[in-house]
Sequence to fold (264 residues):
Amino acid sequence: MNTPQSAHRIVVKVGTSTLAYPNGRLNIRRIEQLVKVLADLKNSGREVLLVTSAAIGVGAGLLGLKERPHDVGGKQAAAAVGQCELMYTYDKLFAEYGHQTAQVLLTRDVVEDAIRKSNAANTLARLMEFGALPIINENDTVATEELEFGDNDTLSAIVAVLSHADLLILLTDIDGLYTDNPRENPEARRIDVVEKITDELLHAAKGAGSPLGTGGMSTKLHAAEIATAEGIPTVVMSGENPELLYDLLDGAAIGTLFKAKERA
Fold:
């Protein structure tokens, strides 16, 4: 059975609300903690791919904007600024722990075309072979509505499938899936394990993401559907304390685990 503790190749997706303050500026302490843990996981022999959000949000912050731009040109411009800041920060921090990073930017047409999809999968495979740590984001500087994944939760699930990962972890600003919105209903209960994603769960997950992000719990359920259908268990957990990744991979009940279909 595929379990978090048995996972060798792991895709970790981190959202804008985890990486950045509400003003769009990077949360340096949080990103440093995350990089330290991921570098240590690589040192232990696991393979790690990081899917990162926050390019548009960070770019908006650096440009002095109060929220994400809503027009295509504005989003592309903010992404161009923010992606530089993100990769500079990741590359610098991972290098301090002796790990080489690699930037991979994708758009939806890449995975919808058989040849491009194969090329992307081959690139990820060779990066893993070379020991690099791929850092993946949507190519927001050129993406339009026709080319967008729509959210990085979906992108992370596609990356997990492309890379033949053993586990997908979605780090967010809430510690799992609840029976109702815990911010509005104090009696909402966290669901530790999901055997199957149902319409009832999808209803419970509805809600908007942060002002600087694009996701919400519903997009995480969609990502879990994609990954678990391909035999990849998925965990939704809080990104507030990255060291909880150690506990998860040691077998502790952290966040919400979506069980995967058994691989053939």
User: Anything to note?
Assistant: Residues 208-215 have pLDDT under 50 and may be disordered.
